[in-house]
From TrEMBL:
Organism in which the protein naturally occurs: Turnera subulata
Family classification: Belongs to the 'GDSL' lipolytic enzyme family.
InterPro entries (UniProt xref): GDSL, SGNH_hydro_sf
GO molecular function: hydrolase activity, acting on ester bonds
UniProt keywords, alphabetically: Glycoprotein
Pfam families per the UniProt record, alphabetical: Lipase_GDSL
Protein name: GDSL esterase/lipase
């Protein structure tokens, strides 16, 4: 697409350039407000950050012409693309204290908060949305280790059945929400992006895409099938049961779908991106050739 990576909103060093946009993403961010001080940046907080960013950008450009090369023009806030990728951490955390049935009953609460945030963005002028559904959480090594001890809870791929079922239910309701938003705001362009199907196809047909390890972590400890131990993170050396061990990275990262037991490898993320841009997993179907990219 020929555009640079977006600078993060929280970046304070140097001279960040926000002319093309701003990245409000934060690790572990949830839709619902979090009680954990480790992950304070919920969707509501990120929308608050966006509204402040927009107001400051417009105000500063009105005062200083030279700042216009670093900040987005006011019309960019309406013409720009808003990519929203939320929900997986909410479902993940919910399983820590709830039964599967309770998690399923909790999903509408998550999506109600998500809808409120989208409405706030719309009120601030946002009109173009990519809303990503959540991937197969049950295929992440950390989840398999923690919830897959009972083989009856594993599916045909070796993924945790309960978590993937919850993800599918969440995604179905998210798709319904996208339809509701289109009806409520007919001048908005709302694209539902099916990340779950992309990642599920990658994991289930990994060899077709050049991968050799669909579930094992590239950087981890423990060996097959998932090479992940909750006690030792990627790159860490520690004593386990009287033996010094290291969670080393593999040498052939491009053959692995998972990087560290939680995140996907660059090779897997590249595959996901290519599938999105090909337009085969979006509703409505996406044609990048018809998108206007502004430099």
């Amino acid at each position: 697409m020929g555009l640079p990576f977006l600078n993060p909103y929280m970046e304070s060093l140097g001279a960040p350039n926000f002319h093309h946009g701003c990245n409000f993403a934060a690790g572990g961010a949830s839709v619902l407000p979090s009680n954990s001080p480790r992950f304070p940046f919920s969707f509501r907080i990120q929308v608050n950050q966006f509204t402040r960013f927009k107001a400051r950008a417009i105000h500063l450009q009105a005062k200083e012409d030279k700042l216009r090369e670093y900040l987005p023009p006011e019309d960019y806030f309406t013409r720009g693309l808003y990519v929203l990728d939320f929900g997986q951490d909410d479902v993940d955390v919910a399983f820590g204290s709830k039964s599967e049935d309770q998690v399923l009953a909790f999903i509408p609460t998550i999506l109600s908060e998500f809808e409120s945030g989208i409405q706030r963005l719309y009120n601030e002028g946002a009109r173009n949305f990519w809303i990503l559904n959540i991937g197969p959480l049950g295929c992440i090594p950390r989840i398999i280790v923690n919830y897959g001890k009972n083989a009856s809870n594993l599916d045909e791929l070796g993924c945790v059945r309960s978590h993937n079922h919850a993800c599918r239910i969440y995604n179905n309701q998210l798709r319904d929400l996208c339809t509701k938003i289109r009806t409520q705001f007919p001048d908005a362009n709302v694209t539902y992006v099916d990340i779950f199907s992309i990642k599920w196809n990658l994991i289930s047909k990994f060899s077709q895409y050049g991968f050799k390890e669909p579930l094992a972590a590239c950087c981890g400890y423990g060996g097959p099938p998932v090479n992940f131990d909750t006690r030792i993170a990627c790159g860490v050396t520690m004593d386990l049961n009287g033996t010094t061990v290291t969670a080393n990275a593999c040498t052939n990262t491009s053959e692995y779908v998972n990087w560290d037991g939680n995140h996907y490898t660059e090779a897997a993320n590249r595959h996901v991106t290519e599938q999105i841009l090909a337009g085969n997993y979006t509703d409505p179907p996406l044609s990048m050739g018809h998108m206007q990219i502004h430099g």
